């Protein structure tokens, strides 16, 4: 086998690649947004040509100006439809909310997914295996906007125990997080179950049992540790998907996150905002992928970072 | 108490859930007595008086600012605002307003100069205000707007610190109505000069209205609280108002049912029946028309016969009753009911006439007009209405129409540029209670004429309304113009808008003016 | 957006270094699927749905015929699934919507699977620099906030079916490309490929005749799992107001949600049809995956 180049060089390459990708994404989204029909200054009432010209003079920017602004000064410009509101302010306000929503949903999904997965694995051949599996399948097949609406109907309108919408106290967060985590819980349940079943039949478990280890010890020291790996592998794509998956949830529960800004800005042809959102998400996803790769190659240098 | 018994039953099921409910119930009432939580629709795009266009913005601005006058509850009535009293000259071309001593929310005095500064900023093409065209009735308004004259030649003058004199281009009485319209209120020069474009942020924004801005959480809510420096603070009924930005109508409706909002200004079509059974249901007049545009420049649609065939085939009564649950009234002309204005008062549904017009136009089911489609901007109710009209055309005329939907900005580009092939949905809400705000749309060179309709006789009739000083004669000319418009049918009116609201029973003194707007000062909560 | 995470990713890592394939994997796998009750249930359900959707025009009145005197009628003999807010027959709409939704699922999946397979084959077979460059591109595309791109693409291309096929297809091929590439890389080292090469068979021919048939199994597995994901994504787009067709399952569910508490049949039947369809596809997909890839239960 050929000797690998030093780690720092590979890291450098990987970083350069990510930067290039970032640049490509920004350029691509700029091009698409500009090519889409509809004009940002098109208001409901007629504007004078002088006034319109003034708007163009004040707010138009070229690709070079945008790129220059982004990379040299970190300037994401200002919104068109929310006139003069800096995109940076929008991102700073809305990103943490979307991240919080995503993080909770992911945490819930991991814990309940593992729990159900283990349960389903132990339930193999017993009566409650089927309900869990059916639920896991329905969780994947039920659109979140239907599930969310059902939760609202039951918990807010019938039982009056949780608020319908908003993002103030923790009470507001229960329903959106539950809705959001459903599909991911279902996925993790299935993965965890498969992995546990695999490991339950492995020799080392039998050996451990034969050695006279108690069931708790076998479970935590051997089974859990080995079975959790596929779930961990699933986390990188899941967190990426969760991060950008807030569009629907934010609409149903009226949460002031980035997804709502994005949908509105695309509808309104508010290029600076739409691009700002894409930019932030791309940067985040690229960073996530980069870290995952670095992590992997540190653990196992054989996985070359090609 | 009611709540504690609910907790007991809950605890039986699950301790955790009950604990959650308890904690939530403690936090539930954000505010306290006198705080009104209204669902305000879309997130306001700006709080700059001169850049705001939509209802959500104007509602909040009505609480934060006060113009020379305030709107009364009765049609055409105005009440003193910043101006204590006012006088019109005999020819109706010059108005003198005497201001009361009053202050901005930062404590500085509000003077006549503030109004001069504001109206100049309003008309200035650099500001690019969409409502700026309303200032064409003020002397030199139009040339200033087109940069043909300097901004200071606008016909508004500060005679001294407490006297404003306005010269008009036309002797129109609705000028006083406009003085009560939000964009004509003063903007704070001191804040604009200090903070530039950021003057509308909380902390920077200085107002002169009954309320002042206290919090702005974007895409969540804007909160205003009673302003201590307002001249009539004793009569401000509410201690605070929270304007919630909720775009999804269903979510808003659910929030009302769950007690998270006190007032909804619009209802999802699917819930009108349910809402009608609620004690808080309220309906009233609104000054707007929902209509179809015909592209008068295109082949086939340039013929009034085809346009009338399509217009007369729409069963407006069925549509308003079955789909809109009888809230809006079927249109009988283009101008919504206006006090002292007769209106066209026509029955616009007549299948026999429709078929005759179609035959006369030379088209038929076998030889259909080219590219018959209904273009609309994406919304659930627009879609439903278009689907119903599509079916009516098919049944009455045998014509198949295609439905095309676009998002708002593309829709605007298509209709404003007259690039739609045949028919497009449209609506217009009057900015002041005068028929001219509707009739103007048919004038050949009007910027908001999106049908491409051009009739010299119509143009000259509308031109006359501007110069006739006698109000009765003016109304008569306008009525003639409307009849002519219905004869040529460049637009097919469908229905007149109506308010459909849900309100908490604790709400008092919430009487809409003829435009469907509210006076926040008067409203109280029990 | 989703709710429909890319589980497939999990597969890739496990797949990369693979033991040589046993002989006649096809036959063995198909036997497995044929004996699997889950797969049988899935196939039966799918056949039922497809037949109903295709026969829709003969089973029910036109999907857009309104009867404003028959609004929101509950299910009855005249209207087996009730009527909607315009008095249209829900059954007719569910059947018609199913046709469009299934079409969207099938075509987008075909587009993405074809692109992904071709891409993965080329990258895996030629390897080295080309593979490096091609896979790096896939990595980059993976970092795109793809639902956001779908939305922008639909705006750019206009709201029509082709735009949707393209937009969904363009973002779905990445996983297939990765999986196929991994497969091809291991197949490349197999004896039968070396043998063919020794015999002087050209690269292209080797790819088509020897490699492609061997990766087809895994391709079918992923295609089966992509269809439900695409159908679900279309329903999300409809919910956000970006529907490209007036009547799909997604549109019906969005409409039905509005009437959830007053006319449950408007939500339950389209929602049930969609859930059933996704369920069947997932059952079949799972079984196929177990069959072609026993390591991934």
Fold and architecture overview:
The complex is a heterotrimer of chains A (about 300), B (about 525) and C (about 300). Chain A has helices at about 5-35, 50-60, 65-75, 85-120, 130-140, 145-160, 170-200, 205-210, 215-225, 230-245, 245-250, 260-265, 270-300. With about 300 residues, chain A is mainly α. The radius of gyration of chain A is 24 Å and the shape is flat. Chain B is α+β, with helices and mostly antiparallel strands. In chain B, strands 1, 8, 9, 10, 11, 12, 13, 14, 15, 16 and 17 form an eleven-stranded mixed beta sheet that branches. Chain B starts with a helix and ends with a strand. Chain C is built from eleven helices and no strands. Chain C has helices at about 10-15, 25-35, 35-60, 90-125, 130-140, 145-155, 160-190, 190-200, 205-240, 250-260, 265-290. In chain C, helix 5 (about 130-140) crosses helix 7 (about 160-190). Chain C is elongated and about 75 Å long. Chains in contact: A-B, A-C, B-C. The interface between A and C is large, with 64 and 52 residues.
Apparent shape of chain C: elongated
Shape assignment of chain A = flat
Largest sheet composition of chain C: none
Oligomeric assembly: heterotrimer
The biggest beta sheet of chain A is recorded as: none
Helicity of chain A, in percent? over 70%
Helical region count of chain C?
11
Mean pLDDT score of chain C: 83
Task: Supply the key terms.
heterotrimer, A: 306 residues, mainly alpha, 13 helices, 0% strand, B: 526 residues, alpha+beta, 11-stranded mixed beta sheet, 4-stranded antiparallel beta sheet, 17 helices, 32% helix, globular, disordered N terminus
Topology at a glance:
The complex is a heterotrimer of chains A (306), B (526) and C (297).
Chain A: H1 7-35, H2 49-59, H3 63-73, H4 87-122, H5 129-141, H6 144-158, H7 170-200, H8 203-210, H9 215-227, H10 229-243, H11 246-252, H12 258-267, H13 271-299
Chain B: H1 2-13, H2 15-28, E1 35-39, H3 55-64, E2 69-71, E3 78-80, E4 83-88, E5 94-99, H4 112-123, H5 141-145, E6 156-160, E7 163-167, H6 175-179, H7 189-195, E8 211-217, E9 221-226, E10 240-244, H8 249-257, E11 263-264, H9 272-276, E12 281-294, H10 304-312, H11 316-323, E13 329-330, H12 351-361, E14 373-377, H13 380-397, E15 402-406, H14 408-416, E16 423-429, H15 436-439, H16 456-467, H17 471-488, E17 491-503, E18 507-508, E19 524-525
Parallel strand pairs in B: 1-10, 1-11, 14-15, 14-16
Antiparallel strand pairs in B: 2-3, 4-5, 5-7, 6-7, 8-9, 9-10, 11-17, 12-16, 12-17, 13-17, 18-19
Chain C: H1 8-15, H2 25-35, H3 37-59, H4 90-126, H5 128-142, H6 146-157, H7 161-188, H8 191-198, H9 203-239, H10 249-258, H11 265-292
């Amino acid at each position: 086998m050929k000797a690998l180049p030093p780690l720092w060089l590979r890291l450098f390459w990987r970083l350069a690649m990510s930067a290039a990708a970032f640049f490509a994404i920004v350029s691509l989204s700029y091009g698409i947004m500009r090519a889409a029909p509809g004009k940002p200054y098109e208001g409901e009432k007629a504007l004078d040509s002088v006034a319109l010209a003034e708007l163009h003079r004040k707010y138009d920017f070229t690709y070079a100006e945008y790129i220059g602004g982004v990379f040299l000064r970190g300037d994401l410009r200002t919104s068109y439809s929310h006139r003069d509101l800096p995109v940076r302010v929008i991102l700073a306000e809305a990103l943490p909310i979307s991240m919080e929503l995503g993080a909770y949903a992911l945490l819930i999904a991991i814990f309940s997914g593992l729990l159900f997965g283990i349960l389903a694995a132990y339930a193999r051949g017993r009566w409650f295996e089927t309900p869990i599996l059916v639920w896991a399948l329905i969780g994947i097949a039920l659109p979140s906007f239907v599930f969310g609406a059902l939760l609202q109907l039951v918990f807010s309108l019938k039982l009056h125990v949780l608020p319908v919408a908003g993002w103030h106290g923790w009470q507001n967060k229960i329903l959106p997080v539950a809705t959001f985590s459903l599909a991911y819980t279902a996925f993790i349940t299935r993965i965890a179950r498969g992995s546990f079943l695999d490991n339950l039949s492995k020799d080392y478990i039998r050996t451990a049992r034969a050695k006279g280890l108690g069931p708790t010890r076998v479970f935590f020291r051997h089974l859990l540790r080995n079975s959790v790996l596929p779930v961990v592998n699933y986390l990188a794509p899941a967190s990426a998907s969760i991060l950008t998956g807030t569009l629907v949830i934010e609409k149903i529960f009226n949460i002031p996150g980035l997804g709502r800004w994005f949908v509105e800005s695309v509808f309104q042809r508010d290029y600076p905002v739409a691009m700002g959102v894409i930019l932030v998400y791309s940067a985040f996803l690229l960073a996530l992928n980069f870290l995952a790769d670095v992590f992997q190659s540190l653990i196992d240098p054989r996985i070359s970072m090609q | 108490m009611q709540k504690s018994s609910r907790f007991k039953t809950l605890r039986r099921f699950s301790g955790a859930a009950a604990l959650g409910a308890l904690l939530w119930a403690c936090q539930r009432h954000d505010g306290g007595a006198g705080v009104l939580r209204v669902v305000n629709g879309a997130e306001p795009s700006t709080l700059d008086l001169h850049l705001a266009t939509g209802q959500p913005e104007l509602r909040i601005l009505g609480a934060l600012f006060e113009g020379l006058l305030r709107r009364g509850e009765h049609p055409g009535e105005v009440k003193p605002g910043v101006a204590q009293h006012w006088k019109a000259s005999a020819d109706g071309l010059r108005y003198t307003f005497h201001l009361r001593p009053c202050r901005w929310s930062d404590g500085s005095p509000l003077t006549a100069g503030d109004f001069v500064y504001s109206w100049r900023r309003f008309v200035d093409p650099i500001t690019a205000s969409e409502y700026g065209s309303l200032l064409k009735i003020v002397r030199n308004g139009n040339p200033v707007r087109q940069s043909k004259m300097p901004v200071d030649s606008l016909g508004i003058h500060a005679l001294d610190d407490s006297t404003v004199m306005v010269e008009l281009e036309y002797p129109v009485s609705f000028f006083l109505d406009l003085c009560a319209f939000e964009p004509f209120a003063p903007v704070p020069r001191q804040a604009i000069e200090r903070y530039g474009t950021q003057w509308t942020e909380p902390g920077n924004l200085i107002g002169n209205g009954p309320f002042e801005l206290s919090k702005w959480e974007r895409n969540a809510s804007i909160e205003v609280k009673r302003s201590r420096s307002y001249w009539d603070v004793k009569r401000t009924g509410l201690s605070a108002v929270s304007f919630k930005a909720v775009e999804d109508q269903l979510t808003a409706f659910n929030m009302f049912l769950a007690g998270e909002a006190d007032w909804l200004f619009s209802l999802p079509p699917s819930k009108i029946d349910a809402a009608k059974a609620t004690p808080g249901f309220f309906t009233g007049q609104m000054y707007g028309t929902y209509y179809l545009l015909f592209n008068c420049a295109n082949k086939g649609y340039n013929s009034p016969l085809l346009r009338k065939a399509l217009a007369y085939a729409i069963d407006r009564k069925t549509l308003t009753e079955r789909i809109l649950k009888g809230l809006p009234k079927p249109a009988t002309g283009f101008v919504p009911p206006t006090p002292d204005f007769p209106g066209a008062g026509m029955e616009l549904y007549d299948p026999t006439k429709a078929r005759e017009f179609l035959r006369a136009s030379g088209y038929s089911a076998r030889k259909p007009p080219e590219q018959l489609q209904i273009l609309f901007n994406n919304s659930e109710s627009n879609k439903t209405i278009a689907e119903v009209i599509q079916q009516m055309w098919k049944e009455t005329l045998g014509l198949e129409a295609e439905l095309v939907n676009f998002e708002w900005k593309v829709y605007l580009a298509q209709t404003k540029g007259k690039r739609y092939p045949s028919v497009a949905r449209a609506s217009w809400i009057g900015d002041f209670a005068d028929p001219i705000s509707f009739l103007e749309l048919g004038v050949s060179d009007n910027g908001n004429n999106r049908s491409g309709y051009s009739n010299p006789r119509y143009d000259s009739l509308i031109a006359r309304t501007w110069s006739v000083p006698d109000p009765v004669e003016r109304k008569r000319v306008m009525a003639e113009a409307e009849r002519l418009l219905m004869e040529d049918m460049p637009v097919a009116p469908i229905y007149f808008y109506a308010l459909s609201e849900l309100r908490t029973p604790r709400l008092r003194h919430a009487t809409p003016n003829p435009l469907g707007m509210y006076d926040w000062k008067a409203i109280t909560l029990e | 957006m989703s709710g429909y995470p890319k589980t497939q990713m999990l597969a890739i890592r496990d797949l990369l270094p693979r033991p040589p394939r046993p002989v006649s994997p096809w036959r063995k796998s198909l036997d497995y699927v044929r004996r699997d009750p889950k797969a049988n249930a899935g196939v039966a359900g799918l056949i039922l749905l497809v037949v109903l959707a295709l026969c829709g025009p003969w089973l029910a009145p036109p999907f857009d015929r309104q009867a404003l005197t028959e609004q929101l009628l509950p299910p009855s003999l005249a209207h087996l699934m009730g009527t909607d807010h315009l008095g249209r027959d829900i059954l007719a709409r569910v059947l018609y919507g199913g046709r469009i939704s299934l079409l969207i699922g099938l075509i987008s999946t075909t587009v993405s699977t074809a692109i992904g397979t071709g891409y993965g084959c080329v990258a895996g077979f030629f390897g080295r620099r080309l593979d490096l460059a091609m896979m790096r591109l896939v990595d980059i595309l993976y970092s795109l906030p793809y639902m956001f791109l779908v939305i922008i693409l639909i705006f750019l291309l206009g709201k029509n079916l082709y735009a949707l096929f393209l937009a969904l297809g363009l973002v779905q091929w990445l996983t297939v490309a990765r999986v196929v590439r991994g497969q091809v890389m291991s197949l490349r080292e197999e004896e039968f490929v070396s043998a063919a090469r020794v015999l002087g068979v050209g690269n292209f021919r080797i790819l088509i005749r020897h490699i492609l048939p061997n990766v087809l199994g895994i391709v079918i597995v992923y295609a089966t799992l992509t269809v439900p994901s695409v159908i679900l994504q279309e329903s999300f787009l409809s919910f956000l107001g970006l529907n490209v067709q007036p009547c799909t399952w997604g549109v019906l569910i969005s409409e039905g949600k509005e009437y959830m508490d007053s006319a449950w049949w408007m939500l339950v039947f389209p929602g049930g049809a969609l859930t059933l369809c996704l369920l069947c596809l997932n059952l079949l997909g799972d079984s196929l995956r177990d069959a072609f890839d026993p390591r991934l239960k």
